[in-house]
Amino acid sequence: MARAALDSGAEYRFHSPGALAQGLAADYWARQQTTAEQGIRTIGLPNVVRELGAMPEGSRTSIAAIGGQSQGWLFVAFVDDESGRLVACAGVEQQSRPTSEARLPQA
Q1: Mind listing the pLDDT tens digit for each residue in 72-86?
Q2: pTM metric for this prediction
Q3: Least CB-packed of 12, 21, 51, 106 within 10 Å?
Q4: Cα(107)–Cα(103) distance, integer angstroms
Q5: Residue 21 to residues 6, 86, 101: CA-CA distances in angstroms?
Q6: Residues of 56-88 as b/e, b for ≥16 C-beta within 10 angstroms?
Q7: What is the pLDDT of residues 36-64, one digit of tens each?
Q8: Are residues 80 and 58 in contact, defined by beta-carbon separation less than 8 angstroms?
């Protein structure tokens, strides 16, 4: 779905240098819990938590944000800073929010 969003012209932002993978794993575990409690549809969050948590201690991961409110879904791709490989990707369905928009954590 993230690739299809990019192919159809979705906006994207790349945040580098990256944050510690272990910290991101904890952050996205909490997001997984929150979105489930709120009934927000997601794709790939368990995989993100597992893959980031399995990275070696001290690994840094940059974040690419793809899409957003206007596309209906926000995808977040995690890229290993050392190897440049895609570690994992997740999507969160964007719901109408009159006063705020989903934001990425600042690395």
Answers
A1: 888 899 999 999 999
A2: 0.76
A3: 106
A4: 12
A5: 24, 13, 24
A6: eeebbbbbbbbbbeeeebbbbbbbbeeeeeebb
A7: 999 999 999 999 999 999 999 999 999 98
A8: no
